[in-house]
Amino acid sequence: MGTDLDNIFDSIIKNSIFKKKEVLQTSHNPENIPHREKQIKQIASILAPVLRGERTSNLFLYGKTGTGKTLSIKYVKDELLKRVSKDADFSLKIEYLNCKLKKVSDTEYRILAELIKKLGGSVPDTGLPTQAVYSKFIDLIDNEKQLIVLILDEIDQTMKKISSDFLYNLTRLNSELSKTQICVVGISNNLTFLDELDPRVRSSLSEEELVFPPYNALQLQDILKKRSKDAFKEGVLEEGVLSKCAAFAAREHGDARRALDLLRVAGELAERDNSNKILVKHIDTANNKIEKDKILDVISSEPKQFQFVLASIIQLSEERAKGIRGTQRSLGKDGKEDPIFTGDVYNLYQDICTKNKIDILTQRRVSDIIQEFDMLGIINVRVISKGRGGRMREIKLAITKEIAEKSKEIIKDSIDYW
DNA sequence: GTCAATTCACATGAAAGAGACCACGGTCTAGTG
DNA sequence: CTAGACCGTGGTCTCTTTCATGTGAATTGACGA
For residues A187 and A152, is the Cβ–Cβ distance under 8 A? Predict the structure, then answer.
């Protein structure tokens, strides 16, 4: 037994195909960013005036995930901080904040709290009136002459919950500050985000705009090539691995992060296989694994009520697959289409709850839950109207059978149904 | 046959409540001099 | 006299419920050809 384990450990240590795995981790900040020179230069030239202590235009970056927005802005930030002169009569602070992080979450209060923390103050997680946090923020900022650049990553995520007043206040903050000047860099994944914004906010927030286009397959391949040189030992990549990787990611709107994940996971799988090379097939497996892990992770961290709803959706879609008919409504005349509707889900959900002696949520709530599953990509939803038959969501499971099975395993822990 | 009204079964919105968590300030208690 | 324990108030956050209003097209029924 002991030697078995020794063997496993030994082989992992000796045969590691990684040289430096961190390079492939998403947290890694490479010192050069291929194919983003133009954007970096533009950001730099827009933000450069801060080095003279002047307020710059507010900047707005947008582009899909994994197009290098965050990387670029962080890079420029570091460079700027390097260059700022020590003896200047002002101090420069550039704060990066990802609004979407679980901890920071999505309220005005928390964003302010997080900013204050980053600037060296401290705020309790809850308990204070928002207004108090707000004035604390201003106090903190305005006690010395300084220039502050706030980088708010993924603001689009937060704006669903927070009124756009917050951004408006932020952009108007300068008038309340006497010594300090502030400028805002917003980053959004959502290309249409700006259109939904209040015009006042829009015009002040995006005095300058910059679009990050997706990488194409060739560029992705180039990025992968550069990173893999540092990440892997010599010659562990089978011919075609990189291009396959790039192709996969290019299909997902040119997401470089995805490509790197893919490569890393493929490497891990190869190691586990005791293979000394990463083969093309590892990429395929990795692709499945990433998808699977992501979904299962989401599902298992979901609260019980969500799992119950999902349980009934899975159950229903299995029954449909087997040809068991639900309500009259879902009886497809042609016998081909046999979709699931909100009502079906709710009925079954009620049954499940009763069996498990759990409180039943309102239909209103379940409706929202279903919509959230849609946003998570676990199901696909379409609102259809069946004329006099009513109006409802048509629900389709968007995960493979295999994942559905695994999901059932997870849900089984907290539910007594199957 | 045609056309507008009706109707279904929810979708979608807004507001507000419950319960958990927490800060702050005041009051009480016990230990100290 | 003072530090610390203990409470009450008022705040935020998340998840829900309640009440209201919206909605797309099949169905209905009145109407006219």
Answer: yes
